[in-house]
Design brief:
Helices cover 30% and strands 20% of the residues. The protein is an alpha+beta fold and 179 residues long. It has a three-stranded antiparallel sheet. It is elongated and about 105 Å long.
Amino acid sequence: MMVRSGNPAARPSTLMSAALLLLLAAGGAARPQSAPPALGLREQGAPAGPPPSTPAPSAPPAREENPGLINEMGKLIDKLPSILPPIKSPSETMDDLSRLAKPSTMVSGRVICPVSANGAPDCKQAADQLCQGKGYKEGKSLNADSAEKCSAKVLIPGRQRKPDDCRTDTFVTSALCQN
């Protein structure tokens, strides 16, 4: 029977390649994960590799290095105790929190923020003044308000407004006060 040369399945080189791939796929199923697949043919008489050595019965078996995602995650978990801070007891945690949380009170009022050397309003000083007026030692600004204050010249009809006719004042309206 004559085989047509145009049929790719009937070419001898294609058949040999397919048979070689099947042999390699069947032989590669029992290989360990870390060994790279062999791409060439082995000689018939050559040994596959060195015989595995058996460790001494008293020594624990050495862990084989297996590069992969699971191995790398295991290394990361082994390093976690040195990375994380030590765990505190509940009493130490409460001591830390009591040092951070000082007794404080929110007060309301309206104190103008003075202008600092760089031209920005200094609302820390205004919050301190607001808290000291209520009997506390110091404070932090919680809420501020601003308003434009203009001279009476702006109200003159027909007069052109100049840049120095108005200024913006900032006020602290509420503050968190501490002893």
